[in-house]
Amino acid sequence: MSLVEERISCPLGQWKGEPGRCQLCNTVIESTRRRTWCSNKCGREWQRNHIWRFARSEWQRNHIWRFARSAAKRRAKYRCQRLGCSAERRDCEVNHINPRNGAGYGPGCHHHLNPDSDGVGGLEVLCHAHHAEVTAAQASARAAKRVANRPKPTKKSRAKLASTARAANKLK
User: For the whole model, what pTM was predicted?
Assistant: First the structure.
């Protein structure tokens, strides 16, 4: 699922209410100065559940990530989500189910969505050992993909490589 599709399918972003109602709790907005949320509390709650690619600063991106990470830990009751794991509560770490791989955050809500049946989207809470295991598996999958996408050497490139190796040996 692309980041745009995640944004479109976000349950908090799918408000289809009538104008003049809060986009979070759907109550009537009494104030003439408000258009989107009925109170600052609803506005902050909505903002805590969304991450934008173009946050104003690095501090803001990290600040929003703290909210997402703590929400995921609360959802999992501060326990590793792998079956049979009995790790300490203090040992829990948050893992992206759909790895970011340096892609950053797009206009999506992948941090608060629970994963679908394919395991796409959302965050999961793992103990350090399981998080290291998952990260190592993702790294080996990325390495295998890089090797598979590497262009096959031709006769010309092999000859050039051999000649540069011979030249390097002569310099020694």
Answer: 0.52
